[in-house]
Design a protein that fits this description.
With about 375 residues, the chain is α/β, with parallel strands linked by helices. The protein is built from eleven helices and ten strands. The N and C termini lie far apart (about 45 Å). Bound molecules: 2-acetamido-2-deoxy-beta-D-glucopyranose (5 copies).
Length: about 375
């Protein structure tokens, strides 16, 4: 299971967006009504736990008080977005217990990639729920909930989406980090670069498919700086010249940046192809990189520190796991104060870091176009 998390990492471009004053007061707040999310562990609110092994303690300890399927001590960026929109946290599509899909559904699963990987969960922790499958699941979800909505008594509608909300919903993508992790694992620079147009194209196909099903508002996160993840730093015998000014692996971040550069160009092209769609590109990479570069100033310990897990002397015991080392059992528990840390488990961010990033992206300051999320339905 730890592999799922390891490979479920996130990336971006340093495009400094000119936050022009788009006549905000003239724009009406969008009434999204529902959110549909597609992604990996960065936005998995319990899908992976429903499909495979549940996230164990101490995950969830900060906010939920128990493990709730998130690879985090508390809430994820997607949770803060839902709260900001006045909606409940998203139920995972695959979760059969206690779910409500009235305000949307979450198709994200830890370990998922955009492209199917020809690998497996048992082999190397790669999720079979690649983006194409998540989209097929969405199509089926829309079709079947519509069918039940029509047939059932109104009192049974409570947990079903209102059919008219699909065209008004916000469709979020946060996926690509594991395609990059796979690239780092299996491809040299030139082979990876050659594969990026296809990766980005498959994401565009997912958007097009949803558009054909009536979706109109898309909010696309790029991928974070994978070379800044503490786990990458603990795995390597690193030479100083491999690191950038924030202590991140330059070569790994270059993969993220290349993906993001092409993703942004593809999103801009999609605006021409889908004239009735409002497409926002969100520079998660820049937000996370800013946080990492200003960790101390923002009240965090250094970004390379991990709250939960044991990573010393070439020994890697992942958050919540136990391992016998020379006759001594090591339990990889969490730190005393997770909100001081940026990294929860070496791969995933803490709730405190997720809140920091969410607050910055929600008002549009890392977006193209630079509209707050509540105005993302408008085509500038
Ligand atoms: C997986 O295998 C199929 C068939 O050989 C191939 O077309 C596809 O490109 C492969 N996917 C990846 C990500 O390598
Ligand atoms: C449900 O009913 C509405 C209104 O009669 C109809 O337009 C729609 O196609 C139906 N949906 C399904 C899935 O049967
Ligand atoms: C990179 O990988 C490709 C495909 O496996 C191979 O053809 C090429 O020779 C490699 N390039 C370098 C510089 O190793
Ligand atoms: C475990 O034992 C080996 C062999 O004696 C030693 O080299 C290694 O440093 C020990 N590891 C730890 C964590 O104590
Ligand atoms: C967005 O919010 C962040 C964090 O509160 C703030 O620093 C930034 O100035 C805001 N940007 C805009 C355009 O409102």
């Amino acid at each position: 299971m730890e592999n799922v998390k390891v490979f479920s990492i996130i990336i971006a471009v340093f495009s400094v967006l000119s936050v022009e004053s788009v006549g905000l007061k003239d724009l009406k707040t969008c009434n999204f009504g529902a959110v549909y999310n597609f992604g990996d562990s960065n936005s998995d609110t319990g899908g992976g736990s429903a499909a495979f092994w549940p996230a164990g303690k101490p995950c969830g300890e900060t906010f939920f008080g128990r493990p709730v399927g998130r690879g985090c001590d508390g809430r994820l960026i997607i949770d803060f977005i839902a709260e900001h929109l006045g909606l409940p946290h998203l139920s995972p599509y695959l979760d059969s217990i206690g779910t409500s899909f009235r305000y949307g559904a979450n198709f994200a699963i830890g370990g998922s990639t955009i492209r199917p990987q020809n690998e497996s969960m048992s082999l190397n922790g790669v999720s079979p729920f690649s983006l194409d499958i998540q989209i097929v699941q969405f199509d089926q979800f829309k079709d079947r909930t519509g069918h039940f909505y029509n047939r059932s008594y109104p009192r049974h509608h409570r947990n079903l989406p209102r059919p008219e909300d699909f065209s008004k919903a916000l469709y979020i993508f946060d996926i690509g980090q594991n395609d990059i992790a796979a690239g780092l694992r299996k491809k040299n620079d030139s082979a990876f670069h050659a594969s990026v147009p296809d990766i980005v194209d498959q994401l565009a196909k997912a958007v097009q498919n949803l558009y054909e099903h009536g979706a109109r508002t898309f909010w696309v996160h790029n991928t974070g700086p994978i070379g800044c993840l503490p786990v990458s730093l603990h795995y390597h015998d690193i030479k100083p010249e491999e690191l950038d000014e924030q202590g991140c692996l330059k070569a790994q971040n270059a993969y993220s940046m290349e993906f993001n550069r092409q993703l942004k160009a593809r999103v801009i092209k999609l605006r021409e192809e889908l004239p009735h769609a409002a497409l926002t590109y969100v520079d998660i990479y820049a937000a996370k990189y800013e946080l990492i570069g200003n960790a101390k100033k923002q009240g965090f310990v250094e970004a390379a520190n991990i709250c939960c897990g044991f990573h010393e002397d070439e020994i890697q015991v992942y958050c919540g796991h136990k391992q016998n080392i020379n006759g001594t059992e090591i339990y990889a528990g969490s730190c005393e104060n997770p909100s001081d840390f940026i990294s929860w488990d070496g791969v995933h961010y803490t709730e405190a870091a997720n809140r920091w990033v969410a607050h910055r992206i929600i008002n549009g300051s890392f977006s193209d176009p630079p509209l707050p999320i509540k105005h993302a339905c408008h085509i500038p």
